[in-house]
Design goal:
8 strands, 2 domains, 9 helices, Four Helix Bundle (Hemerythrin (Met), subunit A), Ribosomal Protein L15, Chain: K, domain 2, 12% strand
């Protein structure tokens, strides 16, 4: 008898891995990347939170299915790891948490409490009283612009404003290109954590109307203590491959700061501030990588 399957907890996984110019498949039961010369490189897919697929990659159906079963997020990105085009589903979706998140977002008072908690975590102080979500969003934007200006002066980087045009990547200035690469790394890891925890990336509180609104909400809580200083530091060096240097630095920092271990508890902390009672998990809820048990075949029991 084999021991029961047990997925690796998200907090214990490698944060992210970039793959480009190769075919991804499952060969002899292993998740592998095959390059143009036929060389196979095995990837421990179950030990990675997020795999970023750059241009030149092809993914087989079996590989995508295996990644979903073990709870690893596949994200299709553009050149240099930016321009997030699409993402897979790592499994483990929880209807109870989706409904809890939606209930908070639809309740105006609860949503405001969540936004105020996000503001407090991000800036280390309570927001002004008697302010609406839109007003807090405006205050936040002003403070963020000042933080960009401060870091640009600190690292001696020329800075006008945050600007990113996905249609003319190479035409962008160096600091903005580094920032886009850095935030793409953070968004990928954050989305993996959001999905693994059973929440919906699109149901945001500060950001709304975008497929990754909640991802942006949560990533912003960590952005200025992690990836933004990295982007300005590398932009100041004017290295030959700044996007690659940014990605490597982000990978190392995520490990040092134990970012994956912090994201899900932070999500629970900000949602709890809404003041609504979270639902109890269903008794038959299953984590990623655990197959459905054999059903009874009766009505209401789907196998």
């Amino acid at each position: 008898m084999l021991p029961p399957l047990k997925p690796i907890a998200l907090k214990e996984r490698v944060s992210l891995l970039f793959i480009e110019k190769g075919g991804i498949d499952v060969i002899d039961g292993a998740f592998v990347v095959v390059d143009k010369n036929g060389v196979r490189t095995q990837i421990p897919v179950g030990a990675i939170a997020c795999i970023m697929l750059e241009p030149g990659t092809r993914v087989s159906h079996r590989a995508a299915a295996l990644a979903a079963r073990v709870g690893t997020l596949l994200v299709w990105v553009g050149e240099a790891g930016v321009r997030l085009y699409a993402s897979g589903q790592p499994g483990g979706a929880r209807s109870d948490r989706l409904l809890y998140q939606a209930k908070l977002a639809l309740d105006d008072k609860a949503r405001l409490k969540v936004v105020r908690k996000m503001y407090e975590i991000r800036f280390g102080e309570k927001p002004p009283e008697r302010r609406s979500v839109d007003q807090l969003r405006g205050i936040e934007g002003a403070r963020v612009r000042k933080m960009y200006q401060f870091l640009a002066r600190q690292y001696g980087v020329p800075w006008r404003r945050r600007d990113y045009d996905p249609e003319s990547w190479d035409a962008g200035d160096l600091p903005n290109r580094c920032l886009s690469s850095a935030t793409a790394c953070l968004y990928g890891v954050t989305e993996a954590a959001v999905l693994a925890a059973g929440y919906a990336p699109a149901v945001g509180f500060i950001h709304t109307g975008k497929p990754l609104s909640f991802v942006y909400d949560i990533a912003d809580l960590f952005k200025f203590e992690t990836v933004v200083p990295i982007a300005f530091r590398i932009a100041a060096k004017k290295t030959r491959e700044p996007e690659r240097q940014v990605r490597l630095a982000c990978r190392d920092l995520f490990r040092q700061k134990k970012l994956l271990k912090r994201i899900i508890p932070t999500i629970e902390q900000v949602l709890a501030a809404g003041g609504l009672e979270p639902p109890k998990p269903p008794e038959d809820a299953l984590p990623p990588a655990i197959p459905n048990p054999e059903s009874l075949g009766d009505a209401g029991h789907r196998g």
